[in-house]
Amino acid sequence: NQTENLGYLVKAAADMSKGTFERGKKDAIALSSIWSAAYYMKGYALQELGRTAEAKAALKQALELSPWNSQYLSELGSLYVLEKNWPEALKTFAAAEDNAPLSPDETKADDLGRARRGTGYVLVELGKLDDAEKKYQQCLKENPKDTKAAAELEYVRGLKAKR
Predict the structure, then answer these.
(1) pTM
(2) Residue 139 and residue 147: Cα distance in Å, rounded?
(3) CA terminus-to-terminus distance, the chain
């Protein structure tokens, strides 16, 4: 989207002025989001087919073009969950949450909820139930109609009651 594109161009200009722009490159260009969306869709389809290594490669290509895209970051986080790579999943979902404000208005709430629920899931898997509960409560504070977060919150509370 335009906000995200502007951010990338401003970052490139700042990197150029600091001399930290990628060696050998003199310009930054903004491509149509169709390119990153195509890689994202390829990654999504490959994940659905159980071809996770190829899915991860496609999602990383999407993120090369749109590194701050919250939806793409959450999808990559989901792949890390499948691999049970909890540190990478947490880091990726945190980046997705941090970048959700750059999402288009029509998807901002969904992107934020997806990132937070992903973090909550990982926290449950790590046995950090209090932190998971707080993350799901954050989801519901932002969106009281988030039925997935509500169900996960009840699940976490059930686990805590069994302790």
Answers:
(1) 0.84
(2) 10
(3) 46
pLDDT in tens, the chain (163 residues): 666 666 666 666 666 666 665 655 556 666 677 889 999 999 999 999 999 999 999 999 999 989 999 999 999 999 999 999 999 999 999 999 999 998 989 999 999 999 999 999 999 999 999 999 999 999 999 999 999 999 999 999 999 999 8
Q: H/E/C letters for each residue in 96-110?
A: HHHHHHHCCHHHHHH
Q: Which amino acid, one-letter code, is at 29?
A: I
Q: Which two tokens stand for residue 5?
A: 């594109």
Q: Check residue 19 and report its DSSP letter.
A: T
The encoded tokens of residue 38 equal 């195509």
Strand intervals (E) in 13-107: none
